[in-house]
Amino acid sequence: MRRTFRGGVHPRDHKELTCEKPIRSLPSPDKVVLPLRQHVGAPARCIVKVGDHVAQGQPIAEAVGHVSAPVHASMAGVVRTIGKHLHPAGFECEAVTLEAHAEDDAKRPSSPYRLPNARPDYTNTDSEELRALIQSAGIVGAGGAGFPTHVKLAPPKDKPVDTLIINAAECEPYLTCDHRTMLEESEIVAHGVRIAKRILGVDRVLVGIEDNKLDAVQVMKKAFANDPAVEVAVLSVKYPQGGEKQLIEALTGRQVPPPPGLPMDAGCVVQNVTTCAAIARAVMQGIPVFERVITLAGSMVNDPGNVRVPIGMLLSDVIDRVGGLAEPPSKVIMGGPMMGLAMAELDVPIVKATSGFVFLSKNQVKTVLPSPCIRCGRCAAACPLHLQPGEIARWVELGNLDAASALHLMDCMECGTCSYICPSYRWLVQQIRLGKAKVHERKQPSA
Questions:
Q1: Which residues, at least 6 apart from 1, have a Cβ–Cβ distance to it below 8 Å?
Q2: Rounded (to 5) percent helix, strand, coil in the chain
Q3: Which of 73, 70, 65, 71 is nearest to 42 (CA)?
Q4: Spatial distance between the Cα atoms of 302 and 330, rounded to a whole number of angstroms
Q5: Distance between alpha carbon 258 and the CA centroid of its chain, in Å?
Q6: What are the start and end residues of each CATH 3.40.50.11540 domain in the chain?
Q7: Which residues of the chain have pLDDT under 70?
Q8: Are 424 and 372 in contact (CB under 8 A)?
Q9: Which run of H or E residues covers position 95?
Q10: Cis ω on the peptide bond leading into residue 11 (within 30° of 0)?
């Protein structure tokens, strides 16, 4: 029986464009731009200066506080600039630009940097040491949120956790980087899962994979064949199956309390499958996060697929190295089309939480003006959090934030199911985002 949650929608997944193509590595770029803000929490603090020569994997910025993460050089090179640069999310932040060494440069480091104290045999290593390795590797959630992984793996003592959930749903249309990672690196993923399990001290692990990836189901079942504590569960194909709350509901039947409730309040910790691969590399091999796999999809890409790229490589350079675009796209989306961000330009760096880019043609981008609500109730039926998006958006539009908040405006996860299903093409999720921003603005102390 396929497991699922109540609500949700069924957009066409378009995964056939890339799901059967092996991951390929791209030639190194001439430069990378490494934002110091690639995670939830405090931005990293730069620890290099212009003119410094760095090795691949060497720390260039340190974590500031517990909820933060260091940044590492994604290639050997020279620090050329330190200053503001456009982040792919649309804001400017401090970034370090590295320029590649020439092959004959005498100052080119002879070998990449590796984390000290790696533990190829982690089975006798205590949780604190494993967490410290994960933190020093700069690992953050690879599924899009970018939350520091060492923090997730340290639930407070008053919130006991009994279940580790591995998010391998990959429910966003077009994206297949998690799928290919499972197929090609199943043993690495399995080690990462076991390390996370050891850190948390739990006896149950649930790996959730949608049934449009049955090849990955078989591969992961084989990887965990000798682990009775690990269950590979098949999920129905439905969006947003990969949301933490929806995944927990589908796999355990438990409900995560409304905000500020977290998965640990339901006795669970959720980790992305690609994050698990990064955990294994850091702990067993001493490799920090300086590269990742991203999906390049959409009708405008000449050679769509999954590519392994250095963190900080500009999207424009990535496109050049995969054969370019068939023609200028009408829209470029970072992430999937449901929760992704439309890009204003292509000279932006890949960051740790970048899962992919979708390049759409004019024919694929529909521009329709919204019409009045017809009270059909489809948005409420589809909402995975059982909210009333149409009513919330209406109150925001009318400027009544108190009425919108009474309908749990701030609980919305902004998954976009309401806007997707609306026959009147109302800008529901956009109004809700605006309302949440206004509520946050209202809470700020006046000057």
A1: none
A2: 30, 20, 50
A3: 65
A4: 15
A5: 22
A6: 117-285
A7: 1, 103-104, 446-447
A8: yes
A9: strand 92-100
A10: no
| Strands 291-297 and 356-360, sheet pairing | parallel
The vertex-299 CA angle with 295 and 304, nearest 5°, equals: 35
> Quick check: 317 and 35 in contact, CB under 8 A?
no
Q: How far apart are CA 316 and CA 324, in angstroms?
A: 9
SS3 447: coil
Q: Which amino acid is at 394?
A: R
Under a CB-based contact definition with an 8 Å cutoff, are residues 347 and 315 in contact? yes
Q: Which of 142, 155, 243, 247 is nearest to 192 (CA)?
A: 142
pLDDT at 104: 60
CATH level 2 (architecture), domain 117-285: 3-Layer(aba) Sandwich (3.40)
CA 44 to CA 61: how far, in whole Å? Answer: 6
Rounded CA-CA distance 100/75 in Å is 7
41-56 CB burial, b ≥16 within 10 A, e <16: bbbbebebeeebbbbb
State the Cα–Cα distance between residues 36 and 40, nearest whole angstrom.
11
Q: What is the pLDDT of residue 444?
A: 81
Cβ 361 vs Cβ 334: under 8 Å: no
* C-alpha–C-alpha distance, residues 348 and 333, integer Å: 12
Chain centroid to CA 148: 11
Residue found under tokens 């429910």: 171
Q: Cis peptide before 240, with omega less than 30 degrees from 0?
A: yes
Strand ranges in 266-304 using DSSP code E only, listed in sequence order: 268-272, 291-297
User: What pLDDT score does 143 carry?
Assistant: 86
CB 274 within 8 A of CB 181: yes
Q: How many CB atoms lie within 10 A of CB 425?
A: 13
Could you tell me which residues come within 8 angstroms of residue 121 by beta carbon, excluding any fewer than 6 positions away? none
Q: Where are the alpha helices (DSSP H) in 101-206?
A: 127-136, 149-152, 177-184, 186-200
Instruction: Find the helix packing angle between 127-136 and 186-200, rounded to 10°.
Output: 130
CB of 405 within 8 A of CB of 411?
no
Nearest in space to 284 (alpha carbons), one of 92, 137, 167, 154: 137
Alpha-carbon 146 to chain mean position: 6
| C-alpha pair distances (Å), 39 with each of 26, 149, 309, 352, 386 | 24, 10, 18, 8, 29
